[in-house]
Each structure stands twice: as C-alpha cells, then as structure tokens.
C-alpha cells in the first residue's frame, strides 16, 4: 500500500435489540450454505477462579438445526431403551474396548450419555472422551438412569456451554433459515441458562456485573453488538414461559 494511502477503519456498529440483530444477521448472510447463528456473551467472571467457572447446558426450544448422533454407554434394559429412543451408538465394555483400541479415531457420535453403573468403566477412555467434550458428566445431566429422556433432550436441541479463558461463552442458537421468532426464543433460552449459572461470587447487577456484552453473528459474518437489556428481556421471557 502506498504511504500516502491511509486505511480508514470501519465505524463500529451501534448495539441493536435482539430482534433487530436477528433480522440483520439473516439479511447479511451471503454464504452458499445455511449458516449457523452464533451468540457470544462476555461475562464478568474470573475464569482462573474455580468458584467463578460458568458451565452448564441449555435446551433450545426450536433446536439447533443440526442432527445429533448420540452414544449411550449402558447394558441390558437400559441399552435396549437407548436403542428404542434412537441412539445411534449403544454399548458397554465392548464399545469401551473398541474406543480404547482405536485411540478415539473415527468416533461416530457427537454426544455421549452413560448410566451410573458404567461410569467407573469409562475411566479407561476418559483421556479420549474428555478433550473432545464427550465425557458424560452428572452435572450436565449426561449420567442418568433415564437414558430415553436424556436422548430426547439431546436430539431436541441441547447445547452445552463453558466459559473460555477470556470469560466468554459461545453457542449456536439455530440456522439463518430459521424463523426470526424461533431464533429469538432460542437466544432467550440460552441467555436464561447463562443467568441461572451465575456464580455467587460475582458482584454487581445483571448487566453491570455479570452480562457485560454480547454479539450475534452468522458462521461467516461479522458480529453485531447487542443491546443487553433486550437480551435480558428475552431471557426473562423464557423463564416466565417455563414457570
């Protein structure tokens, strides 16, 4: 670039209400595939402190738009229930042995569930499943005796979240092809889950202390800053609907 040419930075976009931002993301999507709509939320937490880690799961009322392949570690009646409920992969010690032998190569599932009696046996492959986010966890509802209900939740639109080192949580809340109201309700459900996961040690108000900022974008698009009051309002609407 010649020295006399000065690059002019693009002006920052003003925060938009959630409904307005959703319509903007859909209108600006130019990819040849159905892009995901992503919600990114910056939290007022210190991820280095164990008592301020934000982790959990949210169920999106309109799903994620993605097909989810579920694996269930179970035996006997629970294994049959898993098959009847539509789990793509079901097994016990034999399945664990195959995963261990392969080193995790070619895993044919996106989510994993286990019955409580299988958890001690899963320790053999914890180093394989853990880094991939596939290790069943009681706190996330993926260790359960009611495997049919867990499978249904997974396939209906359950998304797990965990704050990264910068205190930011990320989630896909649907596809650009979704109805705008469906995306609004999904985003509200995810925000409600983040509010419910607020650590007790975080000081300040909902926006001033915990939900610091948020943005919405498509997979290939630029982030649109959100008006935080509108996001909180959507979350509160989800809570009222669940009450």
UniProtKB/TrEMBL annotation:
Tree of life domain: Eukaryota
GO cellular component: large ribosomal subunit
InterPro entries: Ribosom_uL1_bac-type, Ribosomal_uL1, Ribosomal_uL1-like, Ribosomal_uL1/biogenesis, Ribosomal_uL1_3-a/b-sand, Ribosomal_uL1_CS
GO molecular function, one term: structural constituent of ribosome
Keywords from the named record: Ribonucleoprotein, Ribosomal protein, RNA-binding, rRNA-binding
GO BP of this protein: translation
Complex and partners: Part of the 50S ribosomal subunit.
Family: Belongs to the universal ribosomal protein uL1 family.
NCBIfam families membership: rplA_bact (TIGR01169)
Name of the protein this chain belongs to: Ribosomal protein
Species assigned in the record: Chlorella sorokiniana (Freshwater green alga)
């Amino acid at each position: 670039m010649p020295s006399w040419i000065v690059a002019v930075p693009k002006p920052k976009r003003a925060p938009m209400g959630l409904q307005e931002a959703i319509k903007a993301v859909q209108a600006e999507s130019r990819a040849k595939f159905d892009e995901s709509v992503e919600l990114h939320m910056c939290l007022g937490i210190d991820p280095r402190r164990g008592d301020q880690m934000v982790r959990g799961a949210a169920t999106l009322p309109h799903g994620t738009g993605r097909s989810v392949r579920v694996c269930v570690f179970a035996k006997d009646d629970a294994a049959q229930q898993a098959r009847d409920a539509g789990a793509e992969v079901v097994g016990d010690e034999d399945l664990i042995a195959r995963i261990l032998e392969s080193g995790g190569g070619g895993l044919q599932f996106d989510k994993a569930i286990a019955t409580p009696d299988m958890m001690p046996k899963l320790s053999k492959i914890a180093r394989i499943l853990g880094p991939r986010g596939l290790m069943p966890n009681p706190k996330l509802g993926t260790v359960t005796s009611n495997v049919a209900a867990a499978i249904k939740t997974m396939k209906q639109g359950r998304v797990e979240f965990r704050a990264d080192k910068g205190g930011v949580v990320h989630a896909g809340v649907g596809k650009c092809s979704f109805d705008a109201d469906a995306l609004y309700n999904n985003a509200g459900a995810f925000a409600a889950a983040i509010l419910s996961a607020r650590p007790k040690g975080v000081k300040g108000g909902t926006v001033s202390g915990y939900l610091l900022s948020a943005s919405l974008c498509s997979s290939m698009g630029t982030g649109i800053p959100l008006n935080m009051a509108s996001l909180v309002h959507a979350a509160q609407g989800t809570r009222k609907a669940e009450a």
